Amino acid sequence: MDTIPSFTVDHLKMKAGVFVSCKYALSNVILTTFDLRMKRPYHEPVMDTGSVHAIEHLAATYLRNDKMWGHKIIYFGPMGCRTGFYLIMLGDLMPEDILPLLERTFDFVSEYSGDIPGATPRECGFFIDMDLDSAKADAAMYYNLLINPKKENLRYPVKREKKPDAKKAIPQKGGKIDKKSGDKKEKTGVSSSRDKSFDINIGDKKENTDGGSLENIEDK
């Protein structure tokens, strides 16, 4: 089987951010799938299920009710790895196009109080697994990234092929070798998981994500 696009991204190098996952041409329209990566893979703890579930209900409700973009929202839902969400929108779009929309959305989630929309037995398959406090904390961290993103937060890491070695040393006579050598403020009072380190076991190897590098890991 062919590898789906999201599995071709090097998750060991990617940062948290907003990325174009893929685009599909259907008849005369284009659908853009965005990767809303809230947690940096293998460097930050993933979100709890209660946080993911609460964000899903709150963000989906806000997005579909947005006066400017609501009619272009096709789908919003969580990734199985619990590091972010997928957002599918109508149109040929780039991350910069929807940054204001995402800022509003996650500002709304981070400041929300009251009953979570759709959190009843009739409206949801498992409404008791929601944690509003955790959702607000995760949303605030993501909001702080969205208000001042860098290029690495808006574009997937580029796979670069290894360049061939420079001119190899050529043996000389006598056996010797010649060698060449913005104004927006971040939300405060939120505990950040970016400062936490944690160990990941990979086969027989144990690497610490603060300083080490991980190899041969597949996300999702």
E-strand count: 8
CATH superfamily: S-ribosylhomocysteinase (LuxS)
What's the arrangement of strands in the largest beta sheet?
1-2-4-3
Please report the first level of CATH classification, the CATH class.
Alpha Beta
Provide the low-confidence segments as ranges. 174-181, 192-197, 202-220
Mean pLDDT across every amino acid position: 83
Structural class: alpha+beta
Biggest sheet, in brief?
4 strands, antiparallel
Provide the CATH architecture: 2-Layer Sandwich
Annotation field: number of helices: 3
The fold-level CATH name is Gyrase A, domain 2
Structure, explained:
With 220 residues, this protein is an alpha+beta fold. The chain has one domain (9-159, 182-203): 2-Layer Sandwich (Gyrase A, domain 2), CATH 3.30.1360.80. Helix content is 22%, strand content 20%. It contains three helices and eight strands; from the N terminus they run E-E-H-E-E-H-H-E-E-E-E. It has helices at residues 49-65, 95-110, 132-146, and strands at residues 17-26, 29-37, 73-78, 84-90, 170-171, 177-178, 199-202, 205-208. Strands 1-2-4-3 form a four-stranded antiparallel sheet. A two-stranded antiparallel ribbon has the order 5-6. A hairpin with a 5-residue loop joins strand 5 and strand 6 (177-178). Helix 1 (49-65) crosses helix 2 and helix 2 packs antiparallel against helix 3. The longest helix has 17 residues, at 49-65. The radius of gyration is 22 Å and the shape is globular. The chain starts with 16 loop residues before the first strand and ends in a 12-residue tail after the last strand. Residues 174-181, 192-197 and 202-220 have low confidence and may be disordered.
